[in-house]
Amino acid sequence: DIRNEDKVPFVMEFLGSQSYIKTQPLSDAGAKLMKDLKDAMNEVKLHRQGKIKLKTAEQLLNEL
After folding, report:
1. Quick check: 46 and 52 in contact, CB under 8 A?
2. 3-state helix vs strand vs coil in the chain, percent to 5
3. Where does the pLDDT of residue 3 fall: very low under 50, low under 70, confident under 90, or very high at 90 and above?
4. Which residue in 3, 7, 26, 40 has the fewest CB atoms around it within 10 Å?
5. This model's pTM is above 0.85
6. How far is C-alpha 26 from the geometric centre of its chain's CA atoms?
7. Rounded Cα–Cα distance for residues 6 and 45 (Å)
């Protein structure tokens, strides 16, 4: 949701201004993981809304 992404700079600035909270930039791997998790959660949301159909666990295992 773009509205949440717009809040990231504000939240990071606020957290960085608190002396008891330590922040650091994400590594490339960490940023990719966060994007992948966000994409997965979006797929779950679309599935719950009936807009897409997800694979079953059995279908995923058969791909391996």
Report:
1. yes
2. 70, 0, 30
3. low
4. 3
5. no
6. 13
7. 20
| 15, 23 contact by CB (below 8 A) | yes
Q: Which tens digits make up the pLDDT trace of 12-53?
A: 888 889 988 887 888 999 989 999 999 999 999 999 999 999
The token pair at 38 is 């966000």
User: What confidence tens digit (pLDDT) does each residue in 53-62 have?
Assistant: 999 999 999 9
Both tokens assigned to 57? 């666990």
Residue 19, CB half-sphere, CA atoms under 13 Å: how many?
Answer: 0
Token digits for 1?
Answer: 């949701």
Round to the nearest angstrom and report the end-to-end CA distance of the chain.
32
